[in-house]
Amino acid sequence: MFVFVCAGCGARLTTPLSQVALPAHAHQKYGNGIQLPVLMEPGTFAVDPEPWGPPWRTWEEIDPDEAAARGVYAPVYALSDGAPGAIVISPGDVRGTLLIPEKGGGYCCGLDGADGPNMACEACGLPVASRIDDCSLWQAVWLAPNAVRRRPVDDADADAALLSWAELLAEGKRTPPFEPIATWGSRLGSNRWWSWSPQWEAAVGRALAHLLAASEGRPVTVPDGLIAEVFQRALDALLPTGLPTRPAVLAGPGRPAPDADADILLVPAHPQTGEIWAPAGRAASAYPVPLPFGVWLELASPEPYLPVPASGGMPDGVLRDDPPAPRPRHLFRADPGAFQHTLVRLPAIRSSWLREILENLTQHMRARLF
């Protein structure tokens, strides 16, 4: 575990934290006026390897060769010229900082960090972080990588153990596909409704970009059930018909080994390291499409559905007999920002047919694919 200290004076700025993978929804902007919860779990931090935040340069100001060297192979609105390696933590894990009033960018419902770091070290005044809590953004504090230093915690007992895939399965920490969505309060009071999880929309948006790249311009099918509900409609609309189909199968720890001829695998990413699960044998050459572990686990072993309250003894593993969460009233739509962010960073985007999908993203959004 680590604490982060001010690079200027060495003052401690955080509680002890253990590193986890950067969430797929870290930079998601969801809806309009939506009240999103805290991005990171208490006691954890993640590092964004790419630059993010001001200053920004529009695509017209960037040489394509420079963009490609940064791993961006298709036009985007703008790229950040900030320092890479920003550290994101839960706001409750911050210590010894003060808000900078003149850096209060946002203020629709909160702060958005558009003016640069808006938190300073209480001891020396150095700007060290950006507090994000505006509407439709995940609440977080982003530590500026050039203004903080990481120091290990002396207490070895405080180190968080790295869980194996088997231990992750036993822990069973899943991400539900549906959740209540809330808006900020108004004169009419707050408004809540059940919807598809924003985390799922971001995860599927990222995975959909990989599925299109893996398809090589051929139709792709996924297994029936919830996985088809979130992927198949977009795959059918975005890929051509009349060609041999490429099946994408769900693979991962605790599941039967994929067939040797499987060439697209939907696999989990380790929540602590971000490492993508890899099969052994001939299936190791398949294209891995990463999913956050909690989303993958929900697809691989969905919780039992009880259409009516049960009587008598409950089945093993079932803890409640109340009705399941209400289902959303609309079809699933992948997050367009996560989709675009991922797709422009895949070399396959240089293909004309895939570039056309990206260029028509606005029309696909109007068709409610995203």
Attribute tags:
370 residues, alpha/beta, 7-stranded mixed beta sheet, 4-stranded parallel beta sheet, 20% helix, globular
Could you characterize the architecture of this molecule?
This protein has 370 residues and is an alpha/beta fold. Helices cover 20% and strands 19% of the residues. It contains 8 helices and 17 strands. It has helices spanning 64-69, 165-171, 198-215, 226-238, 293-300, 336-343, 352-359, 361-366; strands spanning 2-6, 18-19, 44-48, 56-58, 78-80, 86-89, 97-99, 119-121, 127-132, 140-143, 148-152, 178-182, 192-196, 220-221, 246-250, 264-269, 287-292. The strands form 5 sheets. The chain has a 7-stranded mixed β-sheet, with no helix packed on it. Strands 14-15-16-17 form a 4-stranded parallel β-sheet. The longest helix is centred in the middle third of the chain and has 18 residues, at 198-215. It is globular.
Strand order in the sheet with the most strands? 2-3-6-10-9-8-7
Distance between the termini: 38 Å
Note the total helix count: 8
Beta-strand fraction estimate: 15-25%
User: What is the ordering of alpha helices and beta strands?
Assistant: EEEEHEEEEEEEHEEHEHEEEHHHH
Radius of gyration: 22 Å
